[in-house]
Design brief:
The complex is a heterodimer of chains A (837) and B (54). By secondary structure, chain A is α+β, with helices and mostly antiparallel strands. Chain A is built from 31 helices and 27 strands. In chain A, a hairpin with a 2-residue loop joins strand 6 and strand 7. The longest helix of chain A has 39 residues. Chain A starts with a helix and ends in a 10-residue tail after the last helix. Chain B has 54 residues and is an all-alpha fold. Chain B has a domain of 36 residues. Chain B contains two helices and no strands. The relative contact order of chain B is 0.07. The mean pLDDT of chain B is 78. The chains are: A alpha+beta (837), B mainly alpha (54). Chain B: It holds the Pfam family FixS.
Chain lengths: 837, 54
């Protein structure tokens, strides 16, 4: 770091450069945090990168690119090579050199030359592309590096003889882009193929529509000025040919949809479209043959094009939030420390099998389910159970993949790996929940069904009414009816209004995965909230204390010896309280009982800190005054830590996870709107109940100490009864999030929960939840208004057509007007607008 | 008069060429990543020369 900073300062001085550090940036997402913009690209700087030293950079790429632009030294490459940008982790990536890893993920293009795709974290701007694609210049052995910003991946080709894969991975990590191996998941490829198909269809439909429209202009002009019959025929046959292409190629999707609608006997919007296209096409063809009358090819091709545009918007929206890492892999570590012949080697996790023995160091994630055969420790199982307090484990205890070993190294006999682990099964439930969720029959589709039948019946009625006036008039009026009641507006209304709302919501940091969320949130239902991380901050904090504060430094010195959420809450809080007056003590005989307490001698005085039972076990005396405080803390859902010196209680501290400030107000508002609000938490009821009563939540709707599988069951049950919304953040919530009618993941959640949820609130607190529900309300109003408008239009138009008051030409002119109205109304949606301040 | 018989096919052929071009670019994956190329163009071509050889 010093070398780099020196270089930056040096170059700044040389250029007479004034840093723009004072400049602030109005960013919605970081409004609460300190503001700052990247000196290189002007993007907001994440708090994690706001160091003491100025200038700030939004990413390592900008930092390096800035350095390069500031002084184009000859020794640039060397500097890049030795540059020590913020190491994002101290991972060794050793496991990537294991032959099995290469076999699984890399692809040999020539002997010794391999190709691999990595997903990179933290890549988001031009400088990132710049730096990563320079990789071959300063890391010999890398042949090429091609970045794809859209899915934040890099394609690498490297020469295995001159550089190891772990070296490349370490370099990427050192530059600030943590690499992840690719997943064996076809979803992305399927999406890509579908996307290309959609684009090709759109392109062809657009080209046909454009050209037919041009010809139509000539034909319309010819109506007024007169046109030679041979030219008229030429134009007609050309547009007939173009329309045929458009119907057969891009238009076949509607016929496919219509066929399956007939097969399943469920009216679908494709049915009237296909019918309209057929009738219009046949009528146009007949009129072209006859040489007189209307051809409808212009309206037909434009209709196909517009409907495809609407569908493409919908398709893109559905896939926008597609994430790049598989659920299981984001939770379990990528490598494990395998014990073989008393030697410990880092291997990729894919190598592990049941019966193997592994070592898990303190602070590491446990790679597989198994039984501890040596070592005592505590594990943080909050990812699985939601329980904030760590569990004590000893020899013989079962441990689960994905949980974190907190205090000391343990050795395991592996029982299950990968998908067979508890977390693997849970993730399978998530994926099942995501894929098996029955899509609600959208309002537009329901209306369209009725609409189709009505239009068909009306067309037949119309034919019958006018039959006596001659076949020609009867057919002409029926065709006018079918054209003027084109379901174009109906088809476009919903997806467009949803797309506009989703776009606006994204600007307010509310990411909505699929449009039907908005429809489902239109009416109040049952809202389940997770406690840890959703209602609370998900972090232990000291709330209150009682006693003698002069013992703070002693507590700090003692608690520093332990890795435990309560201990770290205590040390950070005391650091804030006592500031600089830290003292050093001679520590002796420190004894730690995991999950209970700690004791030891500090400068000769015997101290102990821990739970009430622990203190009494140690022979400590807790006077009545302190006992009252302890029970008071317990009632409020706080954990009491008692500190004794030489057997006498000196201090009690109440530690707990604090409620988010906007939780109570948001829940109150939602309840007045008719939502029932409940809590689903993995935490103990003695922690959950006080919080529920502070939030005025009906005790019948409070479930404490529920395992993820039970959460899923509760959600499934209430989904059967009506709209169920689940709000959560942890992995333990993800199956429930996927099963709920609407799963909402909150800011700071685990990756698995983000993927399982339909909505991601990327702002801390619960206020965005209210905004989402309000926005859904407004958007639904827009959709209803759109549908109403097009229905009213259709009723009037159909009346006119049946009355024989409009001919097919006027019908073709009227048709797009309804679509235009819907377009304009959709864009006038006021949902998710920034509140006036 | 009969210029239409030449002009119209030419117009259609041009449109066809554009469509073929579009389909070709789509199937080559040129629209898969719409972000990176815009940034890549900003890079300098001249690579700083390594000290020896090459």
């Amino acid at each position: 770091m010093p070398a780099k900073t020196d270089r930056l300062t040096r170059s700044r001085m040389r250029e007479g450069f004034t840093p723009l550090i004072e400049q602030t940036h109005e960013s919605e997402t970081t409004s609460q945090q300190q503001q700052g913009t990247c000196i290189h690209c002007n993007l907001p700087v994440p708090t994690s990168r706001q160091t003491d030293e100025q200038p700030w950079f939004c990413c390592a790429g900008c930092e390096v690119a800035y350095a390069i632009l500031q002084d184009m030294d000859a020794c640039l490459l060397e500097e890049l090579n030795n540059s020590e940008t913020v190491p994002s982790s101290d991972l060794s990536y050793e496991e990537m050199d294991h032959p099995r890893f290469r076999e699984l993920y890399a692809h040999e293009i020539e002997p010794g030359l391999f190709r691999i795709r990595f997903h990179l974290e933290g890549m988001h701007c031009a400088s990132c592309v710049f730096v990563i694609e320079k990789l071959p210049d300063f890391l010999p052995g890398v042949i090429s590096a091609r970045v794809n910003l859209t899915n934040t991946s890099v394609d690498l080709i490297w020469d295995s003889a001159s550089v190891s894969l772990s070296e490349i991975a370490r370099t990427l990590d050192r530059l600030g882009y943590r690499p992840h191996p690719p997943q064996h998941n076809d979803a992305e490829q399927i999406y890509q193929r579908e996307n290309r198909k959609y684009l090709i269809r759109l392109g062809i439909a657009g080209a046909c529509a454009g050209n037919v429209m041009l010809i139509a202009f000539a034909l319309y002009a010819g109506m007024f000025t007169g046109m030679a019959a041979e030219h008229l025929n030429l134009f007609r046959w050309t547009s007939a040919a173009l329309a045929l292409v458009s119907i057969v190629w891009p238009g076949h999707v509607f016929f496919k949809g219509a066929f399956s609608a007939i097969k399943t006997r469920s009216p679908h919007i494709d049915l009237p479209v296909a019918l309209g296209i057929t009738i219009g096409g046949v009528a146009g063809l007949i009129n072209s043959l006859r040489g007189t009358g209307e051809i409808y090819f212009d309206s037909l091709t434009v209709l196909i094009f517009l409907l495809l545009v609407g569908r493409y918007i919908q398709f893109r929206q559905q896939h926008r939030a597609l994430s790049h890492l598989s659920l299981l892999k984001s939770i379990t570590p990528r490598s494990a420390r395998l014990i073989s012949n008393d030697e410990v080697a880092t291997v990729p996790i894919e190598v592990l099998k049941a019966g193997d023995q592994v070592e898990v160091r303190a602070g590491d994630v446990i790679p597989a389910d198994g039984v501890v055969y040596s070592g005592d420790s505590t594990v943080d199982e909050s990812i699985l159970t939601g329980e904030a307090r760590p569990r004590i484990i000893q020899t013989g205890a079962q441990v689960t993949a994905g949980t974190i070993n907190l205090t000391s190294p343990i050795r395991l006999d592996i029982e299950c790996v990968g998908e067979n682990t508890r977390i693997g099964r849970l993730m399978n439930l998530v994926e099942l929940g995501v894929s098996s969720k029955l899509p609600l029959l959208e309002l537009a589709n329901r209306i369209a069904g009725i609409f189709v039948l009505t239009v068909i019946v009306l067309a037949i009625v119309c034919l019958g009414i006018w039959w006596s006036s001659g076949v020609k008039i009867a057919v002409s009026n029926s065709i006018s009816l079918l054209i003027v009641t084109c379901p174009c507006a109906l088809g476009l209304a919903t997806p467009l209004a949803l797309a506009v709302a989703q776009g606006k919501a994204a600007k307010r940091a509310i990411l909505i995965n699929s449009g039907d969320v908005i429809e489902r949130l239109s009416k109040p239902g049952l809202l389940w909230l997770d406690k840890t991380g959703t209602l609370t901050y998900g972090k232990m904090q000291v709330h209150e204390w009682h006693g003698d504060r002069s013992f703070f430094p002693q507590i700090r010195a003692m608690e520093q010896q332990v890795v435990h959420p309560i201990a770290s809450a205590l040390t950070t809080w005391i650091d804030q309280q006592i500031g600089t007056e830290k003292q050093e003590f001679a520590l002796r005989d420190i004894d730690y009982s995991p999950g209970l307490g700690i004791r030891g001698a500090l400068d000769g005085t015997q101290f102990a800190a821990g739970s009430e039972t622990y203190i009494t076990e140690q022979g400590g005396h807790v006077p009545l005054e302190f006992q009252q405080k302890i029970s008071e803390y317990r009632q409020r859902g706080l954990t009491a830590v008692i500190v004794v010196a030489e057997g006498e209680t000196q201090l009690v501290l109440g530690i707990g996870d604090d409620l988010r400030p906007d939780a109570a107000a948001t829940i109150q508002k939602l309840k007045t709107e008719g939502w029932s609000v409940g809590i689903l938490s993995g935490d103990h009821s003695e922690i959950v109940t006080p919080i529920a009563s502070r939030l005025n939540i009906d005790p019948e709707l409070v479930h404490a100490a529920v395992r993820p599988e039970e959460k899923l069951k509760i959600i499934q049950e209430s989904t059967r009864r009506g709209i169920t919304v689940m709000v959560g953040d942890g992995v333990n919530d993800s199956a429930a999030l996927a099963a709920a009618s609407v799963g909402i993941a909150v800011h700071g959640g685990a990756e698995a929960s983000l993927q399982a949820a339909a909505v991601y609130l990327n702002r801390p607190g619960l206020a965005p939840l209210k905004e989402l529900i309000d926005g859904a309300h407004l958007t639904n109003h827009v959709i209803y208004r759109n549908l109403l408008m097009s229905l009213v239009y259709n009723v009037i138009a159909a009346g006119l057509a049946i009355g024989g008051l409009i001919n097919p030409l006027i019908a073709a002119v009227l048709m797009p007007i309804s679509s235009l109205t819907v377009l304009i109304l959709s864009f006038m949606n006021r949902a998710f607008q920034e509140p006036y301040s | 008069m009969s210029v239409l018989y030449i002009a119209l096919p030419i117009a259609i052929l041009l449109a066809l060429a554009a469509v073929i071009g579009f389909v070709w670019t789509v199937s080559r994956g040129q629209y898969d990543d719409l972000e990176t190329p815009a940034y890549r163009i900003l890079e300098d071509d001249q690579k700083p020369k390594p000290k020896e050889e090459r």
